[in-house]
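Module 6 notes. Inverse folding takes a fixed backbone as the condition and produces residue identities as the prediction. Think of it as a translation problem where the source language is geometry and the target language is the twenty amino acids. Below is one complete input and output pair. Work through it position by position during the lab.
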């Protein structure tokens, strides 16, 4: 009888697989699709690397959804008239800025100007990236250091400058996008993949509609 009781209890006990299948994943409310109970809200974005392929596409998608955006271009290569020309959005919806993510004061200035212009920030997307095509051993110290300064320390500067603000708002949303892809004919990975592997990848609550 004891053996039968043990057998029946083992048959009715849920396994780890069963529990994992029946447990519903709880997502934050910001991930719910727009609907009658969850009307779409106008968000304020700050997009670093806004003139690159990924950054420019995100800025255009943000403007298409009628959100507000601070489009941050590269300090040494872009100009404010150039940013105005490529996005062609009114100043109340799109704020063009210039920044070098390797220099923390310029990152802090971009974030503070965005807050002063729009009143708040909801999302920060880091689309900056530095890559060199070629085998790792063929790259000089300048290129490798520049990759780490941009891909790792640039991301770190954005996090350091933005997290204190987001903590006061209790809603951090910071999304570093992958940098420009780097390819190599060598079996050894190129330096950009190494520098990016150590960078923070994502914080919470990224909206699902973009």
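Target side of the pair, the amino acids:
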């Amino acid at each position: 009888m004891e053996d039968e009781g043990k057998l029946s209890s083992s048959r009715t006990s849920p396994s780890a697989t069963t529990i994992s299948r029946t447990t519903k994943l709880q997502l934050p409310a910001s991930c719910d699709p727009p609907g009658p109970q969850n009307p779409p809200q106008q968000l304020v974005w700050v997009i670093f690397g806004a003139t690159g392929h990924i950054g420019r596409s995100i800025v255009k998608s943000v403007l298409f959804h009628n959100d507000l955006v601070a489009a941050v271009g590269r300090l040494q290569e872009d100009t404010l008239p150039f940013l105005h020309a490529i996005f062609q959005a009114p100043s109340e919806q799109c704020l063009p800025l210039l920044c070098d993510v390797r220099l923390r004061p310029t990152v802090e200035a971009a974030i503070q100007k965005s807050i002063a212009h729009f009143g708040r920030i909801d999302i920060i997307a880091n689309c900056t990236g530095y890559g060199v095509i070629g085998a790792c051993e063929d790259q000089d110290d300048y290129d490798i250091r520049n990759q780490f300064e941009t891909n790792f320390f640039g991301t770190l500067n954005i996090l350091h400058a933005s997290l204190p603000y987001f903590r006061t708002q209790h809603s951090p949303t910071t999304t570093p996008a992958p940098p420009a892809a780097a390819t190599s004919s060598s079996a050894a990975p190129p330096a950009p993949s190494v520098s990016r592997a150590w960078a923070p990848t994502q914080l919470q609550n990224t909206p699902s509609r973009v």
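Reference fact for the lab report: The first strand starts at residue 44 and ends at 48.
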